[in-house]
Amino acid sequence: MHTHNHDDGQEPEEIDASQGYEQSDAHVTGIITFLVSLAAFVVVSAVLSYGIGKVINAHLTKEDGPTNKWATTADVRQLGNLPNNPEMQNKMAEMTQQFPAPRLQTDDGNQDIADLHAREDLLLNNYSWADKAQGKVRIPISVAMALIAQRGLPVAPAAEKTPLLTADKEPTVTEPLTSGFARTGYEQEQTRLAAAESKQAK
């Protein structure tokens, strides 16, 4: 059986394939050559890397100058974890409160919104001076609603209405659409906690 053709005029080598497998041994010389070359490459690469590192470190040391008390290598692992300092924390809290507005919110603004709604409730549900010099007073919103229900609103001139289309109905409002601004989830949670605490106190 012919497997290789040579252009140098030699006769092609005949291989006996009757056994069904390669009968000659592997060439150990090629394997050994490859392994030796690989080992030499690894050794040369390691030596070059070490030499380049030494050169770089020597250059950095030369740039930094001689070691003294101002320029020295410190082992930060010896410092360990720094202990809590309550005095420093209180000082930071003072500085945070004294910092001019707008300040960074530390609770996602939940408490700020609750405080805003509390101030609005004071204006909406209590009497207060709007202009003391002119004698103008703010009245609670419930009183204002009762006065409007008693006296009625000023009658506005009738607006021209377009005829309704087929199957259309006149819109009617049977109850107020809302009783005011919606409370946030944080405020609702605080209200539930306050109610639970009042029950436990009783």
Which properties best describe this structure?
two-stranded antiparallel sheet; 202 residues; mainly alpha; 2 strands
Describe the structure.
- It is a single chain.
- The chain has 202 residues and is mainly α.
- Among the domains are: 25-65; 109-152, no CATH class.
- It has 5 helices and 2 strands, in the order H-H-H-E-E-H-H.
- The protein starts with 27 loop residues before the first helix and ends with a helix.
- 0% of the residues are buried.
Low-confidence stretches: none
Class by alpha and beta content: mainly alpha
- Percent of residues in helices comes to 40-55%
The succession of helices and strands, N to C, reads HHHEEHH
Termini separation comes to: 108 Å
Q: Total number of helical segments? A: 5
Number of strands: 2
Oligomer: single chain
Beta-strand content estimate: under 5%
Order of strands across the biggest sheet? 1-2
Query: Over the alpha carbons, how many angstroms does the gyration radius reach?
Result: 46 Å
Mean pLDDT: 79
State the shape: elongated
What does the main sheet amount to?
2 strands, antiparallel
Describe the protein's topology.
Blueprint (H helix, E strand, L loop, with lengths): L27 H37 L21 H13 L11 H16 L2 E4 L4 E3 L2 H11 L33 H17 L1
Antiparallel strand pairs: 1-2
Task: Describe the structure concisely for a colleague.
Among the domains are: 25-65; 109-152, no CATH class. The chain is 47% helix and 3% strand.
